[in-house]
Amino acid sequence: MKVAIYEDNADVFYPLTNFFPQCYLRFGLGTIIDDFQHCFPKFRFDFIARDLFKFKITADHGPVMYLSSRCLLKEKLPLPKEEVKFTVNSEVVGFLKVSNPYPHDISEIAHAIKNIRKSKEINGLVLDNLCDLVKHSAAKLTDDFKVHHARLNHVGTGPARNRVVKRIEVIGRKQDFYVHKDAVVHDLVAVDVSGGPVFIDRGAIIRPFSMINGPAYIGEGSVVDRAKVTASVIGPYCRIGGEVEACIFQGYSNKCHEGFLGHSFVGEWVNLGALTTNSDLKNNYSSIRVKTGEKVIDSGMIKLGCFIGDHSKLGIGTLIPTGAVIGSFVNFFGGGMMPRYLPSFKWLGPGVEEKYALDKAVETARMVMNRRGVKLTREYENLIRANYKH
Questions:
Q1: Which of 19, 98, 156, 219 could make a disulfide contact with 181, Cβ separation 3.0–4.6 Å?
Q2: Are 252 and 236 in contact (CB under 8 A)?
Q3: pTM to 2 decimal places
Q4: What is the mean predicted confidence (pLDDT) over 216-237?
């Protein structure tokens, strides 16, 4: 059997999905697709996404399970023998097809769902929009630690296996502090696992005078330097300083200096200049509204920070308002309060507001990626140029 993961309402996850499909969003200890692959370890996978990504679907013979990228399964699905729709709280999140016609692009998904009469309620979490990634992040981390407990023990528990020097303070059960055998945790580091476990992944470095409050994940190759990190997911190869609370970093991004970032999602290849700080609470404690694409969403959250698309750069002293949405390839400089919404490919500073020149954006991306040993491929450059046209 094959599993086909399809994009679902991708527009309400703008700008986080400009350069990769929904299922590659970081959520918990891994990405959404990691979750699916854990649930179906022996299955083949296909992907149905926007034409932008040019996925090629293999020919189908026999049963195919289609699942929405917005759905996180909370238990493994029993495999039915007939065509059926899967629902979470009566919302369709997938379906099983056993014969032709099989949908091969997003436009065919709704038609396939309409033609299946039988439905089956399943246990899962549905992400309504980008705000839910932040809203449910801590709970997802906690659940993932329970699900992946055996694997984490296999890579090594820090204090229990002497991978951490003695001058580290662990508050709570030391068994809830996991350190990969190839990670480095210096002395004069404090880790509080009383609120949830902490995992330091392969090659990550936690430097002196840092504090990590669980639940938290520090991804492969990331560096935490004199920082306070609370209830956050730091993806691979990030640089983190200052204070970070309830955030998700997709990967390859820098917040090296002092400044606060709270209840936010930061894409890839983002750089936040020194003292960049965001607001994640309105003065009147009211629900925070967020603009994504052409839609305005009431998050229902009183604590919500910002969403920053891939390759955006914010200069020193930038202040980010509550509920800000910053597109991809935004270059904001000069410090002070930035607008609450900025579309992609924007160059903005004192007395300057213009479109980011495409060739200049591509060359900057190439230089930034080369510094981390990542080549800007022709396919990725084409993605940049396609996004620019939109």
A1: 156
A2: yes
A3: 0.95
A4: 98
